[in-house]
Write a structure and sequence with these properties.
Chains A, B: It comes from Chryseosolibacter indicus. Chains A, B: InterPro entries: CheY-like_superfamily, NreC/VraR/RcsB-like_REC, Sig_transdc_resp-reg_C-effctor, Sig_transdc_resp-reg_receiver, Tscrpt_reg_LuxR_C, WalR-like. Chains A, B: Pfam families: GerE, Response_reg. Chains A, B: Keywords: DNA-binding, Phosphoprotein, Transcription, Transcription regulation. 2 copies of one chain form a homodimer. With about 210 residues, chain A is of the alpha/beta class. The first copy, chain A, folds into 2 domains: about 140 residues, 3-Layer(aba) Sandwich (Rossmann fold); about 55 residues, Winged helix-like DNA-binding domain superfamily/Winged helix DNA-binding domain (Arc Repressor Mutant, subunit A, Orthogonal Bundle), CATH 1.10.10. Chain A has 11 helices and 5 strands. Chain A has a 5-stranded parallel β-sheet with strand order 2-1-3-4-5, with helices on both faces. In chain A, helix 4 runs parallel beside helix 5, helix 8 packs across helix 10 and helix 9 crosses helix 10. The longest helix of chain A has 15 residues. Chain A starts with 6 loop residues before the first strand and ends with a helix. The mean pLDDT of chain A is about 95. Chains A and B meet through helix 4, helix 5, helix 7 and helix 11 of A and helix 4, helix 5, helix 7 and helix 11 of B. The first copy, chain A, binds a DNA duplex (30 and 30 nucleotides) through helix 8 and helix 10.
Chain lengths: ~210, ~210
DNA sequence: CCGCTAATCACGCAAGAAGTGGTATTAAAT
DNA sequence: ATTTAATACCACTTCTTGCGTGATTAGCGG
């Protein structure tokens, strides 16, 4: 393997021991090299244009700015850097926040030698390394509730509401009168116990009705 | 391994050859057995309570009802059956539709012996087998656009709008006057080129602004 | 220091959209 | 035969939006 083309990896992790152990593992590979490591996001952000990492292993719990906030800022400054979160928690809120912030992978600190390197490989080949549990969490998040209280027509209309359509547009699109659209929407509101379009959308997303 | 505890696998696939080859592979494993295989969803749905599969390998392109529609119906009738889509396409629309319908995995027909069995293993241990590209596609879907045209405050307000809040609620929650909330919302509308809350939500989701 | 942007606050008025509360008919499904 | 889903209309109220205008304060970068 051609040495000059090793992928540049940056580590952001406040625990010195973990930092060292990860560095050793990454550097042991023919394909990767650690360009730098920091104990906080602020330093990493400051030096991002100098370090030019292609991949960052990012802790979430950090002194000062946390890893999720840091991920957002780094992705703004360096959009093509892939970030893998490395954390002890598999808490669903944190996972989704991290993914929204721009993370492309999510592994736990218990990752061993092989798991860490295969996560890096996975990133390089355009994938998204995740533990089984995270993968399932993410996929489950897409699932639409099959036990919706809404009828087919109501769901159809709720869908159009979520696309930002007005009463008039909905009625035109479905070839029904505006009054009928209103009736359906009234029924949707009463079933979902809401009283506005945006509340209906919020509830629909929350309960995965669309 | 205890034979009576083999996991029950059902195959829905219209190509006889693929059906046979998948059957052979699955049956070759100590951990899985093919309980039945069908060339269309209709037959699979009809016999679902008799076959009692724990896992279904489901094709998408099928004569009659397609695999996505079939997945929806099967998940209604048998919520605990895990469904893995097996298809030639990795088209993003189809993938997301399949996941919304209730699929827990997504592999391609080119999957070999090992890939197929490890997908089944992955499902059994509560994961979500996917190819690298699909995993990335799914994760990318979470990423929030870091180049939003909106200011921090406007994003904050857009967030509240998406939660179904009224002008009054927004102003109360942010300790600002109703008039100020209106001003911000007007600015949001002009930046997003929309003219209602629900359109703003739609655009925000589309462009991943929140 | 100056200029810009963001964030805040405020008023008014008209038109249209949305929401509330009824009633009612028809077809399909059970 | 009864219920559910889908359709439609009316009347009335309230909220939202469009358009315009103006002003203050804080913070940032040149």
């Amino acid at each position: 393997m051609a040495l000059p083309f090793k992928k540049r990896v940056l580590i952001v992790e406040d625990d010195q021991e973990i930092r060292n152990s990860f560095s050793l593992i990454v550097n042991s590979s023919q394909k990767f090299m650690v360009v730098n490591s920091y104990g906080n996001c602020e330093d990493a952000i400051e030096n991002i244009n100098k370090d030019k990492p292609e991949i960052i292993l990012m802790d979430i719990e950090l002194p000062g700015m946390n890893g999720i906030q840091g991920t957002k800022i780094i992705k703004e400054k360096s959009p093509h850097t892939d970030i893998i979160m490395v954390t002890v928690y598999e808490d669903s809120e944190l996972v989704f926040e991290a993914l929204k912030a721009g993370a492309s992978g999510y592994i736990t600190k218990s990752a061993n030698y092989m798991e860490l390197l295969s996560a890096l490989d996975e990133i390089v080949k355009g994938g998204a390394p995740m533990s089984s549990r995270i993968a399932r969490m993410v996929i489950d998040n897409f699932h639409v509730n099959p036990n919706s209280p809404l009828t087919k027509r109501e769901t159809e209309i709720l869908q159009l509401i979520s696309e930002g359509k007005t009463y008039t547009q909905i009625s035109e699109e479905l070839f029904i009168s505006k009054e009928t659209a209103k009736t359906h929407i009234k029924n949707i509101y009463s079933k979902l116990q809401v009283n506005s379009k945006s509340e209906a959308i919020a509830k629909a997303n929350l309960e995965k009705l669309i």
